[in-house]
Amino acid sequence: MSTRATVLEAWANRAVAETVDGRLVAFHFPRRLERPLPGDEILLNERDELDELLPRRNRFGRGDNRGQFRPIAANLDQTLIVIAAEPAPSPDLLHRYLAASRICGIEPIIVLNKTDLPTPSQAPFDELEGLIELGYSVIRTCCTHASGIDGLAERLEGRTSLIAGQSGVGKTSLVNALIPELDRQTGALSQVTGKGRHTTTSARLCHLPEDSGWLVDTPGVWEYGLWQMTPRELLRGFPEFLEASDGCRFRDCSHQHEPGCGVRAAVEAGVIPDFRYRAWLRLLDEQARLSRS
Ligand SMILES: Nc1nc2c(ncn2[C@@H]2O[C@H](COP(=O)(O)OP(=O)(O)OP(=O)(O)O)[C@@H](O)[C@H]2O)c(=O)[nH]1
Ligand SMILES: [Zn+2]
After folding, report:
1. Per-residue pLDDT at 194 exceeds 80
2. Residue 199 has pLDDT above 70, yes or no
3. Ligand whose nearest atom lies closest to the CA of 277
4. What are phi and psi of 129, to 5 degrees?
5. pTM value?
6. Which protein residues touch ligand 1 with a CB less than 6 Å away?
7. Any idea what the Cα angle at residue 126 is, between residues 76 and 62, rounded to 5°?
8. What number is the ipTM of this complex?
9. What SS3 class is residue 232?
10. Could you tell me the sign of the dihedral formed by the alpha carbons of 110, 113, 115, 117, in that order?
């Protein structure tokens, strides 16, 4: 008899999962099995050992310093990309996150936190209107005055979301506002792992109040990098280009120099904002550097 469980947190060779009947189980896993990720569905045997990792819908991850894909969590419905006026996002951080989500097949939602601070008139803040026109959702929140939290909570209902962003943008404050009883969940987790205190050095799947969904909290990062991929894969991160590329004269159009390029025509017509085209060119350039190094 096997028990179905959801992985909450995983390290090099051990993890914690919650069974369907709400029991927390810590287990080691054999190296022959792929490392489970927060959000993974698994089967445990009667000795509470990992029997099987069930097929995943998707994985979200990042590139490591060698450009390899490093998975963070699995089976997600959406990513919450948190940005704030302070600390100001590094250039292209938001575009990388948005592209990564789309490439992983996950809908990104932009969360502009710290709306009590003046918004600088620079990228990416002055690009948000353009992104909304392209169909991206932007939710504005302020943890200091607890505003926008209900609207954000509504978007999380019944879903599994991952929250990510630069260190200091207020991820922890948002998670605490969304999950008032986070301490209890953290305490229960520490008990089964035997770890005294919990530090957010790894991604962790948490329950939203009243079982209204799941949230993957991730450690803050200074920089978020993409992994090495082909130009075709990168294009999937810019879905608005895909439609326009149907109009390209050449099937293998690079959308850079060729005559009759549907993407460049859409940029010139203002259908694709110029800032998106330039961001894509910069990420393409980054990819060329990744593959050389
Ligand atoms: N003005 C303002 N400050 C905020 C807001 N939300 C969070 N902060 C402050 O921003 C700082 C960083 O907040 P955290 O919640 O620790 O940010 P974090 O993204 O979790 O940072 P890491 O733990 O490094 O990943 C703290 O001093 C918070 O009090 C907000 O809406 N407005
Ligand atoms: Zn083209």
Report:
1. no
2. no
3. 2
4. -60, -45
5. 0.95
6. 113-114, 116-117, 142-144, 165, 167-173, 220
7. 30
8. 0.97
9. helix
10. negative
**Count of domains observed in the chain:** 3
| Residue 15 lies inside a defined structural domain of this protein | yes
Nearest to 110 by CA among 67, 77, 141, 75: 141
Q: What tokens appear for 194 in the block?
A: 């035997």
**Same structural domain for residues 96 and 235?**
no
Is 168 annotated in a binding site? The answer is yes
Spell out which residues have Cβ within 5 A of ligand 2, the ion.
248, 253, 255, 261, 263
User: 283 with 147, same domain?
Assistant: no
Q: Where does residue 135 fall: left (phi above 0), alpha (psi -120 to 50 degrees), or beta otherwise?
A: left
b/e sequence 14-29, b meaning 16+ C-beta within 10 Å: ebbbbeeeeebbbbeb
90 pairs with which residues across the strands? none
Query: CA torsion sign, 236 to 224 to 131 to 151?
Result: positive
Nearest Cα to Cα of residue 164 among 233, 209, 208, 215: 215
Minimal-distance CA residue to ligand 1 atom 9:
170
